[in-house]
Amino acid sequence: xxxxxxxxxxxxxxxxxxxxxxxxxxxxxxxxxxxxxxxxxxxxxxxxxxxxxxxxxxxxxxxxxxxxxxxxxxxxxxxxxxxxxxxxxxxxxxxxxxxxxxxxxxxxxxxxxxxxxxxxxxxxxxxxxxxxxxxxxxxxxxxxxxxxxxxxxxxxxxxxxxxxxxxxxxxxxxxxxxxxxxxxxxxxxxxxxxxxxxxxxxxxxxxxxxxxxxxxxxxxxxxxxxxxxxxxxxxxxxxxxxxxxxxxxxxxxxxxxxxxxxxxxxxxxxxxxxxxxxxxxxxxxxxxxxxxxxxxxxxxxxxxxxxxxxxxxxxxxxxxxxxxxxxxxxxxxxxxxxxxxxxxxxxxxxxxxxxxxxxxxxxxxxxxxxxxxxxxxxxxxxxxxxxxxxxxxxxxxxxxxxxxxxxxxxxxxxxxxxxxxxxxxxxxxxxxxxxxxxxxxxxxxxxxxxxxxxxxxxxxxxxxxxxxxxxxxxxxxxxxxxxxxxxxxxxxxxxxxxxxxxxxxxxxxxxxxxxxxxxxxxxxxxxxxxxxxxxxxxxxxxxxxxxxxxxxxxxxxxxxxxxxxxxxxxxxxxxxxxxxxxxxxxxxxxxxxxxxxxxxxxxxxxxxxxxxxxxxxxxxxxxxxxxxxxxxxxxxxxxxxxxxxxxxxxxxxxxxxxxxxxxxxxxxxxxxxxxxxxxxx
Length: 681
Prior knowledge:
Structural class: alpha/beta
Radius of gyration: 36 Å
Strand order of the largest sheet: 1-6-2-5-4-3
CATH architecture of the domain at 79-292: 3-Layer(aba) Sandwich
Helix content: 55-70%
CATH superfamily of the domain at 79-292: P-loop containing nucleotide triphosphate hydrolases
Number of strands: 9
């Protein structure tokens, strides 16, 4: 393209070096140069300021990233990095005592055992049925059947009520436990009641981990590692107790777990009728056996060994009575209660057994047992609650407000808890404010906030909170920390999960408080002081709540009735001491931000107030809730005031079993009998 100039002509148009020097001399002496220099100086200063601010922002972002990394779930540790030897020894020790106690209580005549007959029912797990004539398995022990090649540790046990399913499972668990005690590589048999199954838990392994935590204080990581390493024999009892709808979902969860993990040790127990009524089968199990009714020969042999009033000749003459004792439980009860009476139904037989229990002489000194009518009323209520709550057993400290009979009583429960907490909060703030010599208006405001906050927390219910409020990020962490729907006993320890929850909740509350202080100081005209106080409250309060929350690790397995509440009460004192020291130290350092000085007296009383509040809302809270709940249940006349003594009495006369600090009826049929009594009354 021709522009009309040659290259040499273009070069002649360029300025020479002398021209540039002359222009610069003229420009540097002009007023415009001074303006240009001033502008560049300002721009350089701005650039330096921005650079410094960027470094600060970068540091803040780095600190924020560290906090986010802290809040992220901890990655699962490889099996080799977690030492499970000590938890294994502790679990073996606990299970040995528990299984021995339960086996002793489950058999009404432990000196005599009955060898049950097993029938092959593999069609119940989707396996082809055997040809006629070969329906009974050759091995006559559960351990031998479990070890068969075609079964390979995955078995379903079905039977009629009272046929001995749970007893056989306990015997098998005891045998496997003895093997696990001798061989360190042998899996541990854990007997879990499926009546406590929660269908909201996404996977069966997480439900198992929760149950091991609740029953034996095995931490979640250890339990999941044992499952990964196939170190547990899962003995899942009472599948029929979850109800038909939930039973199908429970079966799906078991099948999915076995299919995805190929887990090799799983035994499930269920009543035959309930299992056949369901539309799902445990197809991931390899076999099923049915506990057959007792034969005439087995009944006659047991009666000869028992050497009691009931004779075989009597049963031969009464066909109705003979058919009634085809189950081991009914046979043992019949041997105990029979005195020539006419008995036609299982309900009549159980009523006679209850009469026999009340005739036992129980020596008591300081405690007078309730009357027969009161005892039956208390046990009838307990049987009903265990069914409604889908719980196999009762732990006193695990009683919940949902056990109250009606909505009015639950509202009264919240109101009483709110009144007690409000009074204690107001008392704590009054003591602290009087020793800080604060202005009267601030003292009055603090006490009013304490009274209102305590009352609101007592009556607060997460169920009644609007969904959109729970969805707000700044409130979700607070509602998680302040969740008081369940009474949760507290023990000291360390929980990173509670620490993270406490940190988020503490920072959320501190942000609200800090902004309030900032606005208050802005109104007074001191913006910078308000900012410093806001930052001090934000940092100190968030750290304090996180540390105190992390100290609350949950409950241990209880070896005595109501142990969890007594431990919570003791731990309240320890929390007060620790929180006072931690709160004083944090307050002492935090005062540097707004005031630039350290005030020891102010910090001490802030620490004392923090310690008392921490003790109230940690170990003290479940004690208050439990006390109010027990008071209302006692007022309804459904439990005695000394519930632990009553449960011990019911165990001594043979109506309840005791497993550590937990109680259950000696058999599900007996619990059902009391529940039917409740329906009739």
